[in-house]
Amino acid sequence: MTSVSELLPALPWLVPFVSLVRLANNRPNLSDVPPATGPLVSVVIPARNESATIATVARSVLASTYQPLEILVVDDRSSDDTAAIVSRLALEDSRLRLVSGQPLPDQWYGKPWACVQGYREARGDLLLFTDADTRHAPELLARAVGALGAERADLVTVAPRQRCESFWERVVMPQIWLLLGVRYHPSTVNRARRERDVIANGQFILLPRASYEAVGTHEAVRQEVAEDLALAQAIHRAGRKIHFAFAERLMETRMYQSLPDMVEGWSKNVYLGGRQSFPEEPVLRLLVPGMLLGAFLFWLIPPMVLAMTGVGGGLGPAAAVATGLSALFWMLISYGMKIPVWYGLLYPIGALVALYIAARSTWRGERRVEWRGRRYGGR
Fold it and tell me: Whole-angstrom Cα distance, residue 82 to residue 47?
């Protein structure tokens, strides 16, 4: 019979369950904010090779209950028919305009450059930057403008529902989103005292033109891969207020639809974004690779030990319990993300891929950043 002392090594795998209380808290929630009216909102959508999704996001924003608004899709030198799709849609609704992106200047990343070009063409006193892979409910913008006023905020950002449809999305995305959800819960971001504790989600950033210009626009973060995080930090440094809210019933996004895109996308962001999240703490910046690799290795240790020893030998009983606890934890995370719960049983596969992504991202660093057919390096 297995003794209690033999199971003690499994205790660390009970600790993550504490985070479930935090993750289950979906307040503040944008659905609780009354919709508001206000000045013209200019919606800027940077788009590079987004022919699969651009019509969906454009139509969803055009269906907004908020008025007045204009939509500027910045075609960032796409090689597909993104521009042609937007041009056809613009013939149907004059509120939509196509902005043909100019060549990327030196020392700029693509998305900040596209955002700045949209801003330069925008006429609104309020600016919304949103991504081409999002879908907006009709009341989203009106409620976000309501939150901007009610909270007297300089920036409103949201956490939408993350749609995970394919096998790889369902096993890998929870691994990444758990880290972000624990690190940056909206209730914590909204009362942050330190720059390291703020963030904005680049999928939805609403702010007054005056606030945006006061921190230097996206030009101030032109050399940042995680430009949304850097913009939030600039807002905080300027003594301005960020309001972060859940919006899972008002907005959804599907970031990656294939494993290669997921690997490339997160390889671009994980390491550099991790370092950027500790802007004034050089020791923690240095430790980011260890933090990332350790976070994913943690989940792999029990099944690895179990595979080597079996249930009956040495640490086998504790490894079996820790593996069971881990599977239960990830089934609960899957449930919370509206993923079929049995995908939680496959958590070792997700952790292994996430570990590879973290290692790849760390190895590449700033030397080689790739996205949408562009390669950046030497920054």
Answer: 8
Q: What mean pLDDT value characterizes the chain?
A: 94
From CA 357, how far away is CA 266, in angstroms rounded?
7
Q: Tell me how far apart the alpha carbons of residues 340 and 332 are, in angstroms, rounded to a whole number.
A: 10
Which residues are bridge partners to 161 per DSSP? 252
Report the side by side order of strands in the sheet with 134-136: 134-136, 251-253, 161-162
Tens-digit pLDDT profile for residues 42-93: 999 999 999 999 999 999 999 999 999 999 999 999 999 999 999 999 999 9
The domain defined by 33-160+201-255 carries CATH number 2.30.30.40: no
Return the closest-CA partner of residue 153 out of 15, 33, 322: 33
Nearest to 306, CA basis, from 293, 295, 318 = 318
Band of the pLDDT at 377, cuts 50, 70, 90?
A: low
pLDDT in tens, 83-140: 999 999 999 999 999 999 999 999 899 999 999 999 999 999 999 999 999 999 999 9
Q: Measured between alpha carbons, how far is 307 from 74 in angstroms, rounded to an integer?
A: 51
* All residues at 6 or more sequence positions from 91 whose CB lies less than 8 Å from its CB, including other chains: none
Res 379: pLDDT: 44
Neighbour count for residue 125 (Cβ, 10 Å): 13
pLDDT (mean) for 239-264: 96
**Residues 257 and 233: beta-carbon distance below 8 Å:** no
Cβ(197)–Cβ(242) below 8 Å: no
363-369 — which CB contacts under 8 Å span 24+ positions? 364/267, 364/271, 365/271, 365/272, 366/272, 369/109, 369/225, 369/268, 369/272
pLDDT of 327-358, one tens digit each? 999 999 999 999 999 999 999 999 999 999 99
Print burial letters for 167-191: b (CB count within 10 Å at least 16), e (below 16). Answer: ebbbbbbbbbbbbebeebbbeebbe
pLDDT at 310: 80
- For 252, the enclosing helix (H) or strand (E) is strand 251-253
Domain boundaries, the chain: 4-21+277-376, 33-160+201-255
